[in-house]
User: What shape does this take?
Amino acid sequence: MSKQFVACLLFIFMSISVFAQKPKVEKFSSKDMMEFGKQMKKYLNENNKQLADDWEKIVEKQNGLSNDKLHQVADICNLLDDVHYHAPQYIQYITAVLAYAAAKGDAGLFAKWNEMIPDVIKGQKNGVLKDYNAMMNFSKVYFANGSLKENGGFVWHCESENYELVYDNEPKMVYRKCNLIVVGIGDTITVKNTSGEWLILKEKFIGNAGVIDWQKAGVDQSVVYCTFNKFILDANKSDLIIDSAILTHTQYLSAPLIGKLTDRISNRKPGTPNGSYPKFASSGYYELQDIAKGVKYKGGFGIAGNRVIGTGVKGKSAEMKFYNTKDQLVAIATSQEFVIKKGEEILSNNAMAKILIDKDSIFHPGCELRFSINNRILKLSRGEMGIAKISFVDSYHKTESNAEAVVWCIDSTKINFVMITAAGKIPASFESYNYFEKNRIEKYTNVADFNPLLVIVAYCDKNKINEGDAETIAKQMNPNYDESTIKRTLYNLTEEGFIFYSEYRHLIILKEKGATYVKANKKFVDYDNIKIKSESDNGRAAQIDLTNNNIEIRGVKQFNLSDSNQVTIFPSKGNITMKKNRDMDFGGSFYGGHVDFLGRNFAFDYAKFKVGITAADSMMIYLGTGKVDADGVHELLRRTGTFICGISGDLLIDGPFNKSARVKLPAYPKLICTTNTFTYYDDEKIHHHAY
Assistant: This one.
């Protein structure tokens, strides 16, 4: 079959299809309405039987259209014939006419509507039906239900008694005063006390002023509302955005605020308050004194549904300050977002928070914060990854803790470190600022032929900076790497507290701990081995007493003061008391070098790196055997069998600047006894009471 023959057949079929769209009809009568009615019924029977039945019912039997209105309909039908419109366009028009007739609408509105249809048609390019279709779609729903638009379960309409249909370069519904309402399944947008124009072809409402309240979020309309001037509601979008609105909130604000208002329509379960909309975000930074008793706030002010939100503004974080009943500042938190529930709680999923202890603090750079307004309990909780996983930093005691949370009634003198989900399963640890564990840095070398922390430190040292571009540093590690290649490693280093990584800013910030670890690994600086584990069954790992700022750490079985010099503590009842800068009081037993001590009054001095001994119950001396342990590190010892009692003095663990024993000092550990001591040979344990 030739290509020419195929093309000819295709042209014939297309021609038949086009001409089949509109049956050939005579001109509609515009004088004899009875004749026009017969013509219309015949035409509808040929093109849309259901519409023909509706015409018979509404027009013929119910007299839904007067002769004057039928004249108008006949004129428009003849116009459609003049501009060569086809059956679908007639059907659209007659559908709208019957919707008007069934609703017994306003006669004047019907006349204006018919008068502007020619203008709509003339305003289109030949062969383009977009505006005509839009006009008919509007007309059908407006005449039937009074709606401006209906689509996908959403309805747009205006409540008003003062309106008119006009043509001013385009068809419009003009409202002098109305409530503009968008209705979805279980949700609404309501603009009260407004006026404006509904642009029929563009499906937009151009408003002059209005009010939106928070009733749909379950908040009294007299308590919270926004007023505004010019706005546009686009029916092809699900939200209304007003860049300059004025918020009134009688519970929190002494004066109105200016900001951005957003409302959104969504399908919801009927009767369920919208928890997210309307939204308001202030454009400025404000101070509010009455967020809650003893809580002062600085930042942007916002609302999302039934929640009040404190927000950062232009890169500056919002700030909460907490005061106790003595009006003393006791805690500070900053965040890009605080959620404030009046009379209930204040919370943030990512807050930089610190609890003040004299001139020091307990600090976390990105924890979850919850403050119960009723019982005034502040709870800071660590997360599972990234910055949220970083340990709490206690600058008073110079420790870091992986406790899951810090909990404190801010009017009390007791701050608690607790394990919640891992209580009794995972110990809470309290590490010295200067703690070093070689495996922590070497494990990164095990997955690559370089150590990423060493590369970061070298880059910062070379450029005399403490922060750098993540992409640039990735190239320093390997020319084929980019930021995405090392992202997981950067988050791991952040969790360890070595760096801070901002994915949003593409920035790596080297922290002091990271630089110190690299130097300690090379033995360039001193470090220590102090890591205390709390294995408390009830999860109450430690408690700070603010009357003296001491922290009692519970559930401690043992911990080392020095690995190299074999100084290990076994606290009685599992408790130790830590003071400023890692000084500690404890009872129980400890061994140092070749000596065991048992007593009630031991005092560890971190700076001098010694244990003070006051009237120890007993001391046992061990002698070397000349043999080493299975690891080949430490010499095996044997007991002498004689207890020495009443010892007071100091056990010098190592040199004060040699806590890591990086320099071998054979004189340590060293015991300096300051009192007379005794050995009781009548002890029944000695040679079966032979003495």
